[in-house]
Amino acid sequence: MFVGAVFFPLLGASISGFLGRWIGDKPAQWATVICMALAAFCGLSAFAQVALGHAPATVEIMTWLDAGGLQLSWALRFDTLSAMMVGMVTLISTMIHLYSVGYMSHDPTQPRFFAYLSLFTFMMLMLVTADNLLQLFFGWEGVGLASYLLIGYWYEKESANRAAMKAFIVNRVGDLFFMLGMGLTFWTFGSIEFDSIFQGVEAAQKLTFAGYPVLEVIALLFFLGAMGKSAQIGLHTWLPDAMEGPTPVSALIHAATMVTAGVFLMARMSPIIEYAPNVLGFVTVIGATTALFAASVGMVQNDIKRVIAYSTCSQLGYMFFAVGVGAYQAAVFHLFTHAFFKALLFLGAGSVIHAMSDEQDIRRMGGIWKKIPITYAMFWIGSLALAGAPFFAGYYSKDMILEAAFAGHGWTATYAFTCGIIAAFLTAFYSWRLIIMTFHGAPRADHHTMEHVHESPAVMLIPLFVLALGALFTGAVFYDDFVGHHWAEFWNGAIVNAPHNHIMHEAHEVPGWVPLAPTVVGLAGIALAYVLYMFAPAIPGKVAAAVPGLYRFLLNKWYFDELYDRLFVQPARCLAQLLWKVGDVKIIDGMPNGAASLTALASLRVVKLQSGRVANYAFAMIIGLVLFVSIFLFGVGR
After folding, report:
1. Residue 498, Cα to own-chain centre: how many angstroms?
2. Residue 285 CB neighbours (<10 A)
3. How far apart are CA 108 and CA 389, in angstroms?
4. pLDDT tens digits, residue range 349-392?
5. Whole-number pLDDT of residue 448
6. Cα dihedral 51→52→54→60 (10° resolution)
């Protein structure tokens, strides 16, 4: 069961990737879907046994590395945290695979796509079931590779190639810090196996590195690594551009795989991070700033997928400031519920794009809700969950994070709560701006496009129904286990709170207005969106014209791309031009006769020494021997 949950996607990727050309598109598609369905069955069974049945297990596959003092097994660690991630990843990936059968039906290279998609899932499963940091790093780099392949899947498009490279390069920045953290962990604990690390935390509290507490440095390095994968402000710039890949790829990246890896790493390393209070404060500020930044940018985006992408960035900010205040359980709970409604929103957006003949600009949509009513209803469910409407999944998880932030200590927690409330208002606003501009009002597409608007086939709608059930019920069903009064029994040591950390208890004792505040501001955001885009659609244009600087600032995403272009891209390009035009053309090739010509001429003269005559070689050896003996005797004589 445990092995099947992880390795069935690899089997599907192998069948589709290596045999797809011979067995054909349809068999390759369904082979990966069936393998993913088997993985989901195993993953959900593992979740029931490990998390609900409180029976963690570790499956050792083989000895992986035995070098000096470093001995590592390739093992599958199934505690509650891993089992939850495996069940969620396999189920959502199965729905995305099934959806892709319809969405990619006209693509000429379907086996390649499904092979990449299953490989992506396998790498994420390797990451979350890792028993040591090196195995986790294998999955960490694997999802980076798979995301590069999938974002640039349509490699005929220059924009897709650029987006794939951008994602790959930005993530390498974070990965450098991850590797440094892994090295420092081995230096500190003498091991990179999780059990050995966590058992040595108490002794390591007294150690320092470069004058700083070593646990603080390790926690900081791992968080900087997580910033890249989970697109926190500063290393977030790859995430919006990742929309260049097919829509199912966007759903998989944002819902179940890549971007959740950083949050998972923080939860996994909670025994160390708990003893790094300064880093926790930094995590809180970065997470809260990301939540506010991404929500503000999402308000003015016009690409249907980019709006949802920025909402992912914002929700990841919520998860990280939950980690920062010590509420790891709340962060993981929001990761869990968010996976369902974010996959629902992305696949719903794909259904709209499919209906609109590949149009993605919401300014060219409108008036289509009656033609695709099922997609419209699914979009409502996903948006209500995202906005934290009462009794939807996001209501339980997002409210818990805000309650924990309110109960947290210090100015960083207050800052996080304030940013979280503002972001909740903006989230509701841009979600209904998206719904109204996409589905309501007068049609803004051309007549030919409107004539062909149609509902998606059943193979695309069935996954939407399954994900909608998750967006509706996962919050209420799992609240008590994940963050309620039974959280300690449920997590069973997979997430650790230090003895001084009582945040999960204090979060349930906040004043009554605190859990009510996100709902109130959410409803206010929805109402404002209706006023501005349904009843008075001329007002947004007038507001943008009145404050053009602010509008451009948000539309250009706080100018992060322009700033990085000025600081990093242009200097690197200038250096490359200098090395090319001066170093290569003028110095190497521009010297008298050219350095390359001189080298060729010298080699022609040197080869004449190779006459092929034994007598010449013997004479050269004798001369050399005489020289060596003379030098030796001269040295001894002195």
Report:
1. 28
2. 18
3. 41
4. 999 998 888 889 999 998 889 899 999 999 999 999 999 999 99
5. 80
6. -40
Look-up of token digits 């400031």: 321
Give the pLDDT mean for 493-503.
88
The long-range contacts involving 479-488, CB below 8 angstroms and separated by at least 24 positions, are 479/333, 479/396, 479/400, 481/51, 481/52, 482/329, 482/330, 482/332, 482/333, 482/336, 483/327, 483/329, 483/330, 483/333, 483/397, 483/400, 483/507, 487/329
Of the pLDDT bands very low, low, confident and very high (cuts 50, 70, 90), residue 636 is low
pLDDT computed for residue 638 by the predictor: 56
Q: Please tell me whether residue 71 adopts helix, strand or coil conformation.
A: strand
> Cα-flanking dihedrals φ and ψ of residue 372, to 5°?
-130, 65
Q: Is 402 exposed, middle or buried (0-12, 13-18, 19+ CB in 10 A)?
A: buried
CA-based angle 282:283:289, to the nearest 5? 90
Distance CA 628, CA 300 (A): 80
| Phi and psi torsions of 270, nearest 5° | -55, -35
Residue 72, beta-bridge partner list: 65
Interacting residues of 626 by C-beta distance below 8 A, sequence separation 6+: none
Single out the residue of 216, 214, 213 nearest to residue 278, CA to CA.
Answer: 216
Short-list 220, 255, 229, 47, CA closest to 136 = 229
Q: How far apart are CA 392 and CA 102, in angstroms?
A: 28
Check residue 594 and give its pLDDT: 62
Model confidence, pTM: 0.89
Cα separation, 410 vs 408, in Å, equals 7
Q: How does pLDDT run across 528-587, given as a tens digit for each residue?
A: 999 999 998 889 889 989 899 999 999 998 999 999 989 998 999 999 998 888 877 777
H helices, E strands: number in the chain: 30, 4
Is 520 a residue whose pLDDT tops 60?
yes
Residue at token pair 């409107």: 450
DSSP type of residue 532: I
Residue 65 has phi, psi (to 5 degrees) of -140, 130
Cα 269 to Cα 218: distance, rounded to the nearest angstrom: 10
Helix or strand or coil: residue 597? helix
Specify the amino acid at residue 51: A
Tokens of 419: 């940013």
Burial zone of 117 (CB within 10 Å; 0-12 exposed, 13-18 middle, 19+ buried): buried
- Please tell me the total number of residues recorded for the chain in this structure: 638
Q: Which residue has the tokens 């320092």?
A: 208
- Name the residue type at position 24: G
| Local structure of 513: helix, strand or coil | helix
Phi, psi of 358 (to 5 degrees): 75, 15
Confidence at residue 499, expressed as pLDDT on a 0 to 100 scale: 85
Summarize the confidence of residues 307-329 as an average pLDDT.
94
Question: Is 90 exceeded by the pLDDT of residue 47?
Answer: yes
Task: Quote the crossing angle between the two packed helices 133-151 and 110-128, to the nearest 10°.
Answer: 160
Dihedral sign for Cα 313, 315, 319, 325, please: positive
Residue 476, Ramachandran bin (φ over 0: left; ψ between -120 and 50: alpha; else beta): alpha
CA atoms within 13 A on the CB side of 477: 9
